[in-house]
Amino acid sequence: MPLDPHDRSPVVVAVASDDAHRFSKVVREEITLVEGWGVDGDAHAGPTVMHRYDRRKEPERPNLRQVHLLHAELLDEVADDGYRVTPGAMGENVTTLGVDLLALPTGTLLELGEDAVVEVTGLRNPCKQIDALGVGLMGRMVSRRADGSLVRKAGVMAVVRRGGVVRAGDEIRVRLPDGEHRPLAPV
Predict the structure, then answer these.
(1) Strand 172-175 to strand 109-112: parallel, antiparallel, or no bridges (unpaired)?
(2) Is the pLDDT of residue 3 over 50?
(3) This protein's superkingdom (predicted)?
(4) What percent of the chain has pLDDT above 90?
(5) Terminal CA-CA length for the chain
(6) Does the pLDDT at position 53 exceed 80?
């Protein structure tokens, strides 16, 4: 039975990881987040950038993409257009429900489950590999605002501020940063 955001607090729908650099990740019963590192055993974990393209350019750059979070509402939206995209397929580590991830300001803390805390660092920049899940799907991951600016819908990236185990069904608590809020930009 699907989770309804009107029936409960924001929640983790699924967790996923993969020890190899593949586009999609394997849904797991649980993942362990490690402070300053990312998802234990995941190919994108580490203190410096692990994304293959970025690593070739700047291998010592801090890893602002330790954890990828994607809102399940996006999966429902593309399903309405005939795309069958399941949790983990877009490469996300945490699939959420009931949190408007794209509207969060930079520096927002997300408490996942009992112990884990991640800090949102920016937007995931969608790539052409998304079309491997369905021709034209990449085009659904971006849109334009009335002013012509680009909207990226493929989730957000975060770093682990406090480690812990995260499972499907865990509650998500949102803590907005103090001071002036900065909108998310691609990382």
Answers:
(1) antiparallel
(2) no
(3) Bacteria
(4) 87
(5) 34
(6) no
Q: What is the pTM of this model?
A: 0.93
Q: At residue 146, what is the residue type?
A: A
- Whole-number Cα distances in Å, 153 to 70, 92, 124, 144: 9, 13, 8, 11
Q: Give the DSSP H or E segment for 119.
A: strand 116-123
In DSSP terms, which residues pair with 156 in a beta bridge?
A: 69, 123
Say if strands 156-162 and 150-152 run parallel, antiparallel, or are unpaired.
Answer: unpaired
- Can you read off the two tokens belonging to residue 183? 């909108």
**In the beta sheet, which residues pair with residue 70?**
95
Q: Span 145-153, mean pLDDT?
A: 93
pLDDT tens-digit map of 56-115: 788 889 999 999 999 999 999 999 999 999 999 999 999 999 999 999 999 999 999 999
Half-sphere exposure of 136 (CA within 13 A, CB side): 6
**Partners of 95 in beta bridges:** 14, 70
What are 168's two structure tokens?
Answer: 């499907």
What CATH number labels 11-171?
A: 2.40.33.20
